[in-house]
Design a protein that fits this description.
Number of helices of chain B: 3
Distance between the termini of chain B: 24 Å
Largest interface: A-B, 43 and 44 residues
Oligomer: heterodimer
Order of helices and strands of chain A: HHEHHEEH
Helix content of chain B: 10-25%
Radius of gyration of chain A: 20 Å
Strand content of chain A: 5-15%
Distance between the termini of chain A: 55 Å
Structural class of chain A: mainly alpha
Order of helices and strands of chain B: EHHEEEEEEEH
Radius of gyration of chain B: 17 Å
Number of strands of chain B: 8
Shape of chain A: elongated
Structural class of chain B: alpha+beta
């Protein structure tokens, strides 16, 4: 799978249920059924959220090591890293732009 | 849970002057950066189309105009809110930028809040006693604390 893009990551995280899933997966990988139960969602509704999260690259699907019929979900660290770097770049970008604005205002007043 | 970048800086000008400089003169002060590009062709020449429903656009060297975002609040001397989309984003995905202009004596504190997905408006920390003499104050809460925790939590598993 290619590197997840930040817009898909942001879109995936726009939903509170999906953010809840991310919080649960931070603790450990979960089965889809466990996630549905914990979030009080129907199994089909949870499947849809998991599909979105998978497409965003935030979450990956695997098989339970003891029962290969059971699907388990876990976080993909590289997706979080790409979001984190976008936010860090955005922070640095506005810091630079505000300093440029200040320099511009100071120059105009001289 | 929120994800936002918050940054503020004091400018030696009154709030109306700061608002005008920010909006009307953006093409004069905006500094393109190779690490953070609005479009693949570069940043181009930025321009605000004033008023609610107006746009922040950039005019690229190849003659095209790229819409960065729609303006949803235009309060000269006080507040400005606009959408923010880089060309690498999908068409329906946008983030939001809120710029506030607050008088501090004869000067103005300009603060920028760039919200990634939690778009619930929040009162500015600046109104609740930001340190007066800090010239460049940065607060970025969720991404620093929670994402650091997130990455920390990932290490044992991955």
């Amino acid at each position: 799978m290619s590197a997840p893009s930040v817009d898909l990551t942001l879109a995936a995280l726009a939903d509170p249920h999906r953010r809840g899933v991310i919080d649960l997966l931070r603790q450990r990988p979960h089965r889809a059924g466990e996630l549905a139960q914990a979030m009080r969602l129907s199994f089909p509704a949870m499947s849809r959220h998991l599909r979105t999260l998978r497409r965003s690259g935030l979450v990956e699907e695997g098989r339970d090591e003891f029962d290969s019929r059971v699907r388990i979900y876990r976080l993909r660290p590289d997706a979080i890293a790409s979001l984190r770097s976008w936010l860090a770049e955005t922070d640095a970008m506005w810091a630079r732009q505000l300093l440029a604005l200040k320099a511009h205002v100071q120059k105009a007043r001289k | 849970m929120t994800s936002k970048v918050f940054i503020s800086l004091r400018l030696p000008i009154d709030p109306m002057g700061a608002f005008d400089a920010f909006t009307r003169e953006i093409s004069s002060w905006w500094r393109p950066d190779p690490l953070f590009r609005i479009t693949a062709q570069g940043d181009g020449e930025l321009a605000f189309e004033p008023g609610i429903g107006g746009r922040l656009v950039t005019h690229l060297d190849n003659g095209e105009t790229f819409e960065i975002g729609r303006i949803s609040a235009w309060e000269p001397g006080r507040r400005l809110v606009f959408g923010w989309r880089q060309s690498s984003f999908s068409p329906e995905q946008s983030t939001e930028v809120e710029v506030c202009f607050e008088p501090v004596g004869k000067e103005t504190r300009v603060s920028i809040e760039h919200r990634a997905w939690d778009t619930i408006p929040q009162r500015h920390a600046a109104r609740h006693g930001f340190p007066e003499h800090v010239t460049l104050q940065r607060v970025a809460d969720w991404w620093r604390r929670s994402l650091a925790a997130l990455l920390g939590g990932l290490r044992p598993a991955g």
